[in-house]
Amino acid sequence: MANTEQPQRNASEEGRVIFNLPDNAPQHVHSITLVRHGRTAYNAAHRLQGQIDIPLDEVGQWQIKQTAQALRELYVERYHGQRKQLVICSDLGRAVDTAHAFADPLGLSVHPEARVRERNFGEWEGISVEELRERYPEDFRLWAEHRGGEMKYGAEAKEAVGARGVEALQDWGSKAGDDTDLYVFSHGAWISQTLQTLLGLDKIEADFAGILSMRNAHWARLIPMVQSGSIRWRLMDYNHGPAIADTEYWEHPQL
Question: Which of 118, 125, 150, 156 is an active site residue?
Answer without folding.
Answer: 118
